[in-house]
User: Fold this.
Amino acid sequence: MRSRSLSIAAAVTLLASSLAGCGTVNEKLSAGMGDYVPQWAGGLPADAPPRPGTPQYDAYMKERERKRLMPAADREKEERAQKGATGTTSAGAVR
Assistant:
């Protein structure tokens, strides 16, 4: 009787530890796979900022800080110039 309860406890411990391992593997996989899923299938939107820790993220944060320190009037002029350069109107429709 004692060996049976010991084997059941060992089996439960083994199952619990294997499930815990799957949780960490899935967490790491999902963080990386989100970059490769198309937007229409639920992936990152086209205007999402870069991931932290990348050189693109550092450049993005510098540009964001530069715009934050810029006076509001200059910021609005720059945004209008950028919208005109991309070919979109204020409603977001392409010309």
Remarks:
- The chain has a mean pLDDT of 77.
- The chain has two domains: 1-46, 49-88.
- The chain has three helices and no strands.
- The radius of gyration is 25 Å.
